[in-house]
Amino acid sequence: MKLSGNDLGLNKLGLLDLTNVHRNLSVESMVEDIVNNGEGVIGLRGAAMVDTGIYTGRSPKDKYIVDEPSSSDKIWWGSVNQKVSEEVFDRLYDKVVNYYNRSNDSKTYVFDGFAGADPKYSLNVRIIAKKAWQAHFVHNMFIRPEEGELDGFDPGFTIINASDVSNEDFKELGMNSETFILFHLKKRIAIIGGTEYGGEMKKGIFSVLHYKLPLKGILSMHCSANVDTNGRNTALFFGLSGTGKTTLSTDPNRPLIGDDEHGWSDDGIFNFEGGCYAKVINLDKEAEPDIYNAIRHGALLENVCYDEKTRVIDFTDGSKTENTRVSYPIDHIENSVFASGKPSMGPHPKIIVFLTCDAYGVLPPVSKLTPDQAMYHFISGYTAKVAGTERGITEPVATFSPCFGGPFLTLHPLKYAELLKSKIQTHESKVYLVNTGWIGGSAASGAKRISIQNTRAMITSILDGSIEQSKFKTEPVFGLSCPLSLIGVDTEVLNPRSSWDNADDYDKQATTLGELFTNNFKTYGKAVSYLENAGPIRNHNEIAI
Is position 245 annotated as part of the catalytic site? Predict the structure, then answer.
């Protein structure tokens, strides 16, 4: 429906006398505009396909938060949350507003909806954009309103996307580049310029929830979640890219709550989003049928390579980017809680899995964590890049991302870790560390990665509780409690030290990894020093399995 900006109160934002505003268009209308505007084409089973311009991923160095009194003392300032002044924000805000006011001949798209499946903790979100595909993206990713839910709608947070606007004065303003993603938490507004990438809007709202919810005692989490077929026994899966978070949480026997962002309140788990945003590089319809089958009318593909005549996609082609993506409403996953007609929510989790891909070959494939160890590994957020995946990498490279989602945290990692500890103690949740990386040597040595069959068997033993029937022993690196045997798992992989041909080589590699953990943990200061004993054991060679 065509509206004026005044109908929606956009004049209060300085968007004056807009007369070509379209709110919550249907997918069909947005796809028509994508094609008619030359933004993209129609591809596999009716899905739209677009390119996101020069940026095919987020621009973390261009993200800023306004330094203002109501929030400044709470923000975890640093490389993730960079300060910007009110004056700089106002200057760029005026630039964005002027762009919209000058371009009224073209459509302005507005999406009004929600972030948070639990209405008690939901955030009303408004996204304003000039590109039809960006409107399509947020329609997929956020929770779409039902009939009547927008009556009297009051945005709790607004993002104004002006991707065509650049900040030519960035050097004068002390900023990183012409691209800018600025958040003003008091005014409840963010502005985006210089990048088309849709993930900035998705993760922008996630960052806002990471600020608002923990201050209310609700843990915001970068994780996937599923439940059993009875809607009970919720499991959470944390993990950075490449650890298997999406693959292992997508289970034909366990309905999906969500694949990326969740909250944990006093009432249980709830999804923040109304859709999924999956990587599709090397997508195989046999190996990942749920994602492949979700690519149909209503889905939006980004930066995939395809035949110009036939529109057939080559999912193996990463010449545009390795970060090829598809967004789709969550009910495109048939085995999801939402597709069954229920809100994307679940009871308090009894199982929490931290996934890591250890290319050093040191961490055990599966171990049980104490509450302090859970906090330590949650704050650490470890995985490792594999030699050969990037130019110049010849040895494993450790990556630490606090709370398994460092780029999106707005408060100090300890705040989230303390909430996690409180909740797992209150609800007696069990926490496990699962290594999906290498065994018998490092990735650089030519050793093999732990098989998906063994990993799935470990996850099954965690979910059905049979792992607790095993005998456990302490491993020699981090003091982790490891099972000696599990049903369906090759016993020799459960003890990483004995799987190496040379135990001395293992000890050297273990010392290296332990020092990396220790040095990283020191960056969080004295506030977390009491957890150091939950990390690497200094004299691990004295401990035998």
Answer: yes
Q: Any bridge partners for residue 278, and if so which?
A: 326
Q: Is 383 a catalytic residue?
A: no
Between strands 63-66 and 180-184, the pairing is parallel
Three-state DSSP class for residue 527:
helix
Which is catalytic among the residues 106, 229, 241, 426? Answer: 241
Tell me which of 63, 203, 377, 415 is the catalytic residue. Answer: 203
E strands of 436-480, at which residues?
438-439, 448-449, 472-474
Cα torsion at 415, 431, 234, 336 (round to 10°)?
Answer: 90
Candidates 23, 52, 56, 58; catalytic one: 58
Query: 287 near 279, Cβ under 8 Å?
Result: no
For residue 434, with 0-12 CB atoms within 10 Å meaning exposed, 13-18 middle and 19 or more buried, which class applies?
buried
Q: Which residue has the tokens 């090397």?
A: 282
One-letter amino acid identity for 340? Answer: S
Q: Give the torsion sign (CA, 330, 331, 333, 335).
A: positive
Q: In terms of pTM, does the model score above 0.85? A: yes
Q: Which of 245, 377, 412, 423 is an active site residue?
A: 245
pLDDT by residue for the chain (545 residues), tens only, comes to 677 878 899 999 999 888 899 999 999 999 999 999 999 999 999 999 999 999 999 999 999 999 999 999 999 999 999 999 999 999 999 999 999 999 988 999 999 999 999 999 999 999 999 999 999 999 999 999 998 999 999 999 999 999 999 999 999 999 999 999 999 999 999 999 999 999 999 999 999 999 999 999 999 999 999 999 999 999 999 998 878 887 888 888 899 999 999 999 999 999 999 999 998 999 999 878 889 999 999 999 999 999 999 999 999 999 999 899 999 999 999 999 999 999 999 999 999 999 999 999 999 999 999 999 999 999 999 999 764 334 344 567 899 999 999 999 999 999 999 999 999 999 999 999 999 999 999 888 888 899 989 999 999 999 999 999 999 999 888 999 999 999 999 888 898 998 999 999 999 999 999 999 999 999 888 888 888 888 897 544 444 44
Q: Which of 59, 207, 234, 246 is catalytic?
A: 246
Residue keyed to tokens 């690519």: 295
Q: Residue 262 catalytic?
A: no
Q: Is 505 a catalytic residue?
A: no
**464 tagged catalytic:** no
Write out the H or E segment, with its range, that includes residue 398. strand 397-400
* Nearest residue to 300 (alpha-carbon basis) of 112, 25, 31, 22: 31
Four-point Cα dihedral 376, 381, 385, 390, nearest 10: -140
203 among known catalytic residues: yes
Residue 250 falls in the annotated catalytic set: no
From 22, 212, 254, 325, the catalytic residue: 325
Which is the catalytic residue, given 62, 112, 259, 260? Answer: 260
Residue with tokens 């600025």: 182
Q: How far apart are CA 244 and CA 236, in angstroms?
A: 13
- Compute the distance between CA of residue 527 and CA of residue 507 in angstroms, rounded to an integer: 30
Pairing label, strands 157-162, 123-129: parallel
Residue 222 annotated among the catalytic residues of the structure: yes
